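for the writeup, i need someone to sanity check this before i put it in the appendix. the sequnce is what the collaborator sent (i think, or maybe the updated version? ugh). structure was predicted straight from it, no edits. if anything looks off just tell me and ill rerun, i have time this weekend
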Amino acid sequence: MQIVLDINDAKVLEALQLAEKHNLTLNQFLETLIDKVVVLSTPAETIELDDRTIDATLQQMLTFAVGTDIDKLFKIPDLYATATGKSWKKLSPNTRKALGRRFRKLASEHNRNGSTGDVFIEYQGRNLQHSAMYKARLL
């Protein structure tokens, strides 16, 4: 297919130089860029966890949180990734929200049932990216 594009000369020169640097023709270089844009623009399939799996995952996360360094801040996405070995970004938005809300409730329940000398999980607020921040503490 032939396409005629009206592109700024300076941009075309930059593209030609980059193509040459990578030992590609301009057509090959542009095809590569188009492929990358298509891949980046295609939404990845997300994973939706059912309630039972969420409960099991939360227990796994709580166990891991209780074993973290005392007074070290952590976020739910990082805790999930570390505790499960899976990517937080692959979870559906609904699953992420459910894990976040339910972890906070589980941590509060854990703290109410604990006693002096136990590790408590303390909510520290939210960061600029709106991720909930927690800290493991001894009480």
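Residues 9-41 form one domain. Residues 93-113 form the longest helix (21 residues).
thx in advance!!
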